[in-house]
Design brief:
The chain is of the alpha/beta class. The chain has three domains: 16-80, Orthogonal Bundle (Arc Repressor Mutant, subunit A); 83-201 and 384-418, ATPase, nucleotide binding domain (Nucleotidyltransferase, domain 5), CATH 3.30.420; 208-378, 2-Layer Sandwich (Nucleotidyltransferase, domain 5), CATH 3.30.420.40. It is built from 16 helices and 14 strands. The strands form four sheets. Strands 5-4-3-6-9 form a five-stranded mixed sheet, with helices on both faces. A five-stranded mixed sheet has the order 12-11-10-13-14, with helices on both faces. Strand 11 and strand 12 form a beta hairpin. InterPro entries: ATPase_NBD (IPR043129), ROK (IPR000600), ROK_cs (IPR049874), WH-like_DNA-bd_sf (IPR036388), WH_DNA-bd_sf (IPR036390).
Length: 421
């Protein structure tokens, strides 16, 4: 027979499980009144009252307005207290930093942007980012930070939060990104590839929790975030989606990673800048040439906008990039069979000119079944995209993965989340 202590532990476990489920049901909108909770869970009225009272006492839930009546007394609704804490998001790009704060529902409340070259190294970059975050928190005081999400433009070992040999991030290999934020906020920190944040942000924007989606970012570099049934597919070590370093047939271009013929070295933003400067030096005319002669720096954004404005050289470069990127995406379509591909990044700012070439190559080279229900669209080009995605990452980790480890403490801490369940 089971011992009394074993039975008591089992009862406590059942109580915890049902309490967590009720909080998450209210948080996600699956149920908003006590009767609805009863219908979904099958729990008795007394048990539900006990669990809800406990959740209110712990600060997770509170009573809201009265709901519609089904003939008897109108039930009082419940709401999740999303305003009780903040999520901090820091999204690093090759040449910029985006930071933001969100509530526990994932709504971005405030954000800031700064031009910044990530090649300046981790110490200066993190100091600058933390200073930006401090300014945001000073404008939005008196709420504790419960989680931090960080995106970086390179491969990341998700378990450790360390970048792994990122080609455009000298000095960052193996760096303890997570530790600086943990020390500053005493909150759990998750570090991921920047394109994964963009993919999660797209899921949130579309309110599609089961999306099969590829977000392909063509900026200074090239990468893809993969969503399978709404979940990020990172692979065994976090390298899934790093299409920027697949080999392009017949190319001998030297890549920043040290290899030859990578997609990024042929079609990435920095490759377009390289080719544009070479073409101007060889006598090409037009908008890009005039800007270069005036001392303006040629950037992926400048080339994309010039293509939109009809510059012949820029159009040629953008279309060449799109064709090669489209071939790489077609391979992913055949293997992954997404329902939606979202194209973002600085080069994709060329709009329909870039998108049309990608669509043509994908539909030419992919299987008919894989493209039967496929949509290929541009991103919304909003600087808050990675911030929304970072908030989604943090919420997913807090409430779907680690909630049982820390809920009894009333708030997550570094030790409470990283310790074994």
């Amino acid at each position: 027979m089971a011992s009394e202590s074993t039975l008591r532990f089992g009862a406590q476990t059942d109580e915890v499980t049902s309490l967590l489920r009720i909080v998450n049901m209210v948080r996600t909108g699956e149920a908003s009144t006590r009767p609805e909770i009863g219908r979904v869970t099958g729990l008795g009225r007394g048990v539900i009252t006990q669990r809800v009272d406990r959740a209110i006492e712990m600060g997770f839930l509170e009573d809201g307005e009265f709901g519609p009546s089904s003939g008897g007394r109108a039930p009082r609704t419940l709401r999740f207290r999303a305003e009780q804490a903040r999520i901090v998001i820091c999204a690093f790009g090759a040449l910029h930093i985006n930071v933001g704060i969100a509530d526990l529902d994932g709504d971005v409340l405030d954000h800031a942007h700064s031009a910044w070259d990530i090649a300046r190294g981790p110490a200066d970059t993190l100091d600058h980012a933390l200073g930006m975050i401090d300014e945001l928190l000073a404008r939005n005081p008196d709420k504790p930070v419960w989680a931090v999400a960080v995106g970086v433009p390179g491969p990341v070992d998700f378990e450790t939060g360390r970048p792994v040999a990122p080609p455009i991030m000298p000095g960052w290999n193996g760096f303890e990104v997570r530790r600086r934020f943990e020390q500053r906020f005493d909150a759990p920190v998750w570090v991921d590839n920047d394109v994964n944040l963009l993919a999660l942000g797209e899921r949130a924007r579309r309110h599609d929790e089961n999306a099969d989606l590829i977000y392909c970012k063509v900026g200074s570099g090239i990468g893809a975030g993969l969503l399978s049934q709404g979940r990020i597919h990172r692979g065994a070590n976090g390298a899934a989606g790093d299409i920027g370093h697949v080999r392009v047939r017949d190319s001998d271009a030297q890549c920043r990673c040290g290899k030859i013929g990578c997609l990024e070295a042929v079609a990435g933003g920095w490759a377009l800048v390289r080719d544009a400067e070479a073409a101007v030096a060889a006598g090409a005319a037009g908008t890009l040439a005039r800007r270069h002669e005036q001392g303006d720096a040629l950037t992926p954004e400048v080339i994309a906008r010039a293509a939109e404005d009809g510059d012949a050289l820029a159009i040629t470069l953008v279309q060449q990039s799109a064709r090669v990127v489209g071939e790489a995406i077609a391979t992913m379509v055949n293997m992954f069979n997404p329902g939606l591909i979202v194209i973002g990044g600085a080069v994709a700012a060329a709009g329909e000119l870039f998108l049309a070439e990608i669509r043509q190559r994908v539909y030419e080279l992919s299987l008919p079944l894989a493209t039967r229900d496929l949509s290929i669209v541009n991103s919304v080009d909003d600087v808050r995209e990675p911030l929304r995605g970072g908030a989604e990452l943090a919420r997913e980790e807090l409430f779907e993965r680690t909630f049982p480890r820390w809920f009894a403490d009333g708030r997550p801490t570094v030790d409470g989340v990283t310790s074994a369940a």
